[in-house]
Design goal:
5-stranded parallel β-sheet; alpha/beta; 12 strands; 315 residues; single chain; Rossmann fold
């Protein structure tokens, strides 16, 4: 995000963060929520980095679940206790000796994740960690699907009982303002034309025991089509791995968002989440300009966050 003067709400947020991390509040943590682009992650990341302690851990939603599942899987392979023990030890692996845990982009849409995230909350509050969370959702709105919402009610109760809630709801989406395009995700672009890889560069790349076709896998650049990325059974496991392996990405043939099926839409939202958090320069190649693409994003949960983040790009 580009540099800008703090607004009044952001200054109040810093005061709340200071109060909670200094333990001068009765709350055990701070749950920060509000619309996309208001500076929740930017302010909290900056504050977290400045905390004068090494006993702190930052996790992002997708990276956390990937690390948790890998740790549980590895412990089960080594037959270290039952499933419940494996989950508890996996959580210890992630939080370590931290006294402050910052969980960025907390959200719950999957019923299968609801119990694991509840276990995380039980664990960190039992360990007396100071917990800072950012989210686009108020606590009561987590896992919004009415069919499954009850599965996360215990987690919601833990959040409300242990944290102070802060709503950052200013009128400006700061991602719509001018940006520094010299580095990171914001140095990428949304374009309707690009020099594509030649046919002979087509290859496949491996993640764990699976292979995935791509347009090109150069030393520092991944070229992949929307169909290869989002219309096949890929997951954040692959996105995180490729985000670590390639310094830049190019995603080709991005269709109108409304023309993709629901699973492809969610995968694209997840890809953008991962690329922004990893700050990977990314070129999106589409027959549509960005405004036309974004016009079809209003009906999908979390698409507003993706829409806000794509505003960071050069056009």
């Amino acid at each position: 995000m580009t540099e800008y003067a703090l607004d009044d709400d952001q200054r109040t947020l810093i005061e709340a963060l200071s109060r909670v991390t200094a333990r001068s509040s009765s709350a055990r943590g701070l749950y920060i929520h509000g619309p996309a682009g208001r500076g929740k992650s930017w302010v909290t990341n900056t504050f977290f980095e400045a905390l004068p302690t090494k006993c702190k851990t930052r996790v992002h939603f997708h990276g956390f679940l990937d690390s948790l599942h890998r740790s549980i899987h590895d412990r089960r392979l080594r037959r270290e206790g039952d499933v419940q023990d494996a989950v508890a030890h996996a959580l210890d692996d992630i939080t370590g000796r931290s006294r402050v845990l910052f969980f960025d982009e907390f959200h719950v849409h999957d019923s299968g994740d609801a119990r694991l995230l509840t276990r995380l909350l039980e664990h960190v509050f039992r360990q007396d960690l100071t917990v800072i969370m950012t989210s686009n959702y108020a606590p009561d709105d987590l896992l919004p699907d009415p069919i499954w919402h009850h599965l996360f009610e215990p987690g919601i109760a833990l959040i409300k009982a242990n944290t102070e809630t802060f709503e950052l709801d200013g009128p400006i989406d700061y991602r719509t303002l001018a940006h520094d395009h010299s580095r990171g995700f914001a140095s990428g672009s949304w374009t309707t034309s690009a020099v594509r890889p030649q046919a002979h560069e087509a290859t496949s790349i491996q993640v764990r025991d699976r292979e995935f076709p791509v347009l090109a896998a150069r030393a520092d650049e991944l070229w992949i089509s929307f169909a290869q990325l989002c219309e096949t059974p890929t997951s954040t496991i692959e996105y995180l791995d490729w985000g670590r392996s390639f310094a830049s990405w190019a995603i080709a043939d991005v269709p109108a968002f409304a023309d993709a099926d629901a699973q492809a839409q969610q995968r694209f939202i997840n890809v953008v989440d991962v690329l922004v958090d990893a700050d990977v320069p990314t070129t999106f190649v589409s027959p549509l300009d960005l405004d036309a693409f974004l016009s079809g994003t209003t009906a999908r949960p979390d698409a507003y966050r993706m829409a806000s983040r794509l505003q960071l790009l050069r056009r």
